[in-house]
Amino acid sequence: MKQIKGLKVTEMIHHAHIAGTGSSMPERILYNKDLESIVDTSDEWIVRRSGIRERRISSTERDESTTDLSTRASTKALEMAGVSAEELDMIVVGTVTSDRQFPSTACMVQEALDARNGVAFDVSAGCSGFLYALNVVNNAIQCGTSRTALVVGVDRLSSVINWQDRGTCVLLADGAGAVVVSSSPNEGGILSTHLKTDGRLWKLLYSSDGNAYTPDILQGLAKIPFHLKMSGSRLFKKAIECLSSISRDALKHNSLSSDEIDLVVPHQANIRIIQALANNLHIPMDKVYTNIHKYGNTSSATIPIALDEANREGRLNKGDHVLLMTFGAGLTWGASILKWSI
Ligand code: ACO
C-alpha cells in the first residue's frame, strides 16, 4: 500500500522484474579473414575501426530463422525464470527482419512455444527494438494488464545486407536474446526507461525498397533488392552524442551517480562508440559489458544477448544497478536503468 499526498492508494503497485534471460546464436562463424575474400577489407581494419573479430551468420536450412533463434532464446529464458509458456500473457518481439511480412515473429514464436494465452506482436525500432519492446511490457505490467511477459530482441541482418558494401557487411550479423519479465509488488526491477526518436534522420540508416514500398506495383513483380544503407560516420557521432545525453537523463531521474552503476550493457555497434560513452559518463571500461568482438552488431539482439551472457557469467548480482543503452535506425535511441533481481 502506498501513501500519495494524504490519499491511501489501496491498489497494488506493480514493478516489472527480469526473471530469466536467454540467448541463441547461429552456429556458423564468419571471421574477418573470410570477409577479405568478399570485399576490399582487412582483419586489421575491421578490428581497429570496430572491435569486431568474428560474427555469426544464420541459415534457415540449419533451422536458424528469426523464429527459430527467438524460440531457442525464449526457451532458455523461460527455464531460468521457472515460468511455463502457458503463463505468458504477452509476447513482444523487437525485430526488423521478421521471417515474413506477416504474421509477426511474435505470433510464430507463440506457436513454437505453445504459449496459448495472451497477446503477441512485434515492435519495429531498428536496433532499439529490444528496449522499445521492454518498455511496452514494463508499461503493461505497471498498469496491471500483464503479469508475465516475454520480450525478445532478434535480427538476421545478414539477410538484408548488401554483401558488396564493405562499410556495412563487416559490421552486421545475426542472433537472438530474450528476457522473461514478471510483475512483483517488490520494488526494483525496471526503474526507468527513457526513449527518443528523431524521424528527420531516418535516411542515415534504412533499407532500400522491400516490403510495401515499391516505385511501381507492376515492377514489384520482379525481385526487388532489399539492401541496408548506412551513413556510418554520421551515425557514429550521433550515437555518442544521443546516448551520452539520454544516459545522463536516466541517471538524474533515478538520483544515481555514474559510480553507482555496477554494469553498463550497451548496444554493441562499435567498440569505439562504447569506449567514448564510458569516457563521457566517467564509467570505467571494466564496468561495461562487451561481446562485439565475437558477435558484431546483431541489431535488436545485442542487448538481450549481452545481458544473458553477463548474467550467466556471474557479472550481475542481486541489487546491482544496470544501465542499458540502445541506438538504431529511425533514428531511435534510449536508456534504461534496472535494479537487478535474479
Ligand atoms: N575495410 C576497409 N576500409 C573501409 C571499410 C572496410 N570494411 N569500410 C570503410 N572503409 C574505408 C572508407 O571507404 C574510408 O576510405 P576513404 O578514407 O578512402 O574514403 C575509410 O575506410 C574511413 O571510413 P569511415 O567511414 O570514415 O570510417 P570510420 O572510422 O567512421 O568507421 C564505421 C566506419 C565502422 C562504419 C563507423 O563509422 C561506425 O561504426 N559507425 C556507426 C555504425 C552504427 O552505429 N550503426 C548504427 C547503429 S544501427 C545498427 O546498429 C544497425
Describe the structure.
This protein is an alpha+beta fold and about 350 residues long. It is built from 10 helices and 15 strands. The strands form 5 sheets. It has a 5-stranded mixed sheet, with helices on both faces. A 4-stranded mixed sheet has the order 10-15-14-13, sandwiched between helices. The mean pLDDT is about 95. The chain has a single domain (about 15-340), classed as Thiolase/Chalcone synthase (Peroxisomal Thiolase, Chain A, domain 1, 3-Layer(aba) Sandwich). The longest helix has 22 residues, at about 230-255. It is globular, with a radius of gyration of 20 Å. Bound molecules: acetyl coenzyme *A (ACO). The site of acetyl coenzyme *A has 24 residues, from α2, α6, α7 and β14. Acetyl coenzyme *A (ACO) binds near residues 239 and 328.
Count, helices:
10
The parts where pLDDT drops under 50 for at least 5 residues are none
CATH class: Alpha Beta
The end-to-end distance, rounded to whole angstroms, is 24 Å
Give the overall pLDDT as a whole number: 93
The percent of residues in helical segments reads 25-40%
| The CATH architecture | 3-Layer(aba) Sandwich
What is the overall shape? globular
